[in-house]
């Protein structure tokens, strides 16, 4: 069922081995993958095996929760849900299943609540070895695509879950402790994946969330975590208003900069040309400034640029009369951007691009004016 192998130690009076994994072959031979920490080991040696019991208990909690999860999904989503794969270790659960759409937050909450309800119900977990026909008659869920031979092992959790499984499980669902879904998403057409945690991993998750909330409280200046959401909403609203104010001020500053540049426009062959470098501009503000120019001067062709972190950002705008006469903002930037070590293009009336060499701006300006 996707369960990882046990780890632990193998020891004798003359050697110590660390078991890093265990595997089962098709011939039902159990292999212990080990590293030799001390001494030598040979055929015929008698060793004492010690499983990492804390890790094994955590794996058992994870594996049993997968059975409850599948039953909960089938209950709340429909019996079309079937397991497509899983991975179970001591830290978390990964469960793949057939379903046609993403789960809504409400559905995820229902499934998580259902699993925890079955944990709190303290259902006995029973294992029965029987033949496949008897298991199928009892209604045991089997892993899709898996081929079963001879006797099979049924794992029953009260009257809630009945599956064929060869993995390890808790004796009672209450031993799982808690179950928390971390994420849900699609991994293939018609296949979804849920990742979750159980037991002490849930406590670690809650501790992490508490620490994060406390850190946010400190940053926002609130003393109670219950006040955090309201404080965050108030700050978000305040920031939104401040952003609007800043945008209005920037628009006025940009308009003032553009007004001061109008006298620098050069009439040439029926066009009004402008190539200008503006400080502290963003790409959006460059485009907005270009829109001001083309709206005010329909015959204008302007290239506005700014330098930030050693890179050049360009915006070219052409008024409607200039476009009618053959001007094309995208073609302008295709001509001058390579000079600056960049590239770009766009529509006839508006285009944007960038470059990596601000020192070539005079050369780019010269090429721009030579186009008209």
User: If you compute it from the alpha carbons, what radius of gyration comes out, rounded to the nearest whole angstrom?
Assistant: 34 Å
Helix content: 25-40%
Overall morphology: elongated
Low-confidence stretches: none
Strand order of the largest sheet: 12-13-14-15-17-16
Q: What order do the helices and strands follow?
A: EEEEHEEHEHEEEEHHEEHEEHHEEH
Number of helices: 9
What do the pLDDT scores average to? 91
Distance between the termini: 72 Å
| Largest sheet, strands/sense/barrel | 6 strands, mixed
How many beta-strand runs? Answer: 17
Strand content: 25-35%
Query: What structural class do the secondary elements suggest?
Result: alpha+beta
In words, what does this structure look like?
- By secondary structure, the protein is of the alpha+beta class.
- It is built from nine helices and 17 strands.
- It has a six-stranded mixed beta sheet, sandwiched between helices. A four-stranded antiparallel beta sheet has the order 3-2-1-4, with no helix packed on it. Strands 5-6-11-10 form a four-stranded antiparallel beta sheet.
- α1 packs across α2 (105-120) and α5 (228-261) packs across α6.
- The model has no long low-confidence stretch (mean pLDDT 91).
Briefly summarize what is shown.
Helix content is 38%, strand content 31%. With 372 residues, it is an alpha+beta fold.
Secondary structure elements and their pairing?
Layout: E1 8-12, E2 15-24, E3 30-39, E4 48-51, H1 53-77, E5 83-88, E6 93-98, H2 105-120, E7 125-131, H3 132-138, E8 151-157, E9 161-164, E10 179-188, E11 191-198, H4 199-220, H5 228-261, E12 266-268, E13 271-277, H6 283-296, E14 300-308, E15 311-318, H7 320-324, H8 329-336, E16 343-346, E17 350-355, H9 361-370
Parallel strand pairs: 13-14
Antiparallel strand pairs: 1-2, 1-4, 2-3, 5-6, 6-11, 7-8, 8-9, 10-11, 12-13, 14-15, 15-17, 16-17
Helix pairs in contact: 1-2, 5-6
């Amino acid at each position: 069922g996707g369960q990882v192998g046990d780890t632990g130690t193998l020891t004798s009076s003359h050697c110590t081995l660390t078991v890093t994994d265990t595997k089962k072959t098709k011939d039902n031979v159990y292999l212990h993958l080990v590293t030799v920490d001390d001494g030598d080991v040979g055929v015929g040696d008698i060793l004492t095996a010690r499983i990492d019991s804390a890790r094994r208990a955590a794996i058992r909690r994870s594996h049993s929760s997968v059975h409850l999860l599948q039953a909960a999904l089938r209950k709340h989503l429909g019996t079309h849900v079937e397991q497509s794969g899983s991975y179970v270790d001591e830290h978390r659960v990964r469960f793949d299943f057939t379903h046609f759409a993403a789960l809504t937050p409400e559905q995820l909450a229902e499934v998580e609540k259902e699993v925890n309800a079955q944990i709190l119900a303290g259902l006995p977990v029973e294992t029965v070895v029987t033949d496949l026909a008897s298991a199928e008659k009892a209604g045991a869920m089997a892993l899709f695509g898996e081929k079963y031979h001879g006797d099979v092992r049924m794992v029953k959790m009260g009257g809630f879950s009945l599956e064929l499984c060869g993995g390890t499980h808790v004796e009672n669902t209450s031993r799982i402790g808690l179950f928390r879904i971390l994420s849900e998403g699609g991994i293939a057409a018609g296949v979804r994946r849920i990742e979750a945690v159980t037991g002490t991993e849930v406590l670690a998750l809650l501790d992490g969330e508490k620490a994060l909330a406390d850190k946010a409280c400190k940053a926002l200046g609130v003393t109670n975590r219950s006040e955090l959401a309201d404080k965050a909403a108030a700050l978000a609203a305040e920031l939104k208003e401040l952003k609007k104010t800043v945008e209005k001020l920037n628009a006025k500053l940009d308009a003032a900069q553009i007004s001061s540049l109008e006298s620098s426009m050069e009439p040439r062959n029926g066009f009004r040309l402008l190539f200008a470098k503006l400080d502290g501009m963003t790409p959006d503000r460059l485009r907005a400034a270009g829109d001001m120019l083309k709206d005010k001067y329909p015959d204008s062709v302007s290239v506005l640029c700014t330098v930030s972190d050693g890179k050049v950002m360009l915006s070219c705008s052409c008024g409607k009369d200039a476009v009618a006469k053959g001007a094309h903002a995208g073609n302008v930037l295709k001509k001058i951007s390579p000079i600056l070590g960049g590239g770009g293009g766009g529509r006839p009336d508006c285009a944007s691009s960038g470059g990596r060499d601000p020192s070539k701006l005079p050369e780019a300006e010269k090429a721009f004016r030579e186009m008209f």
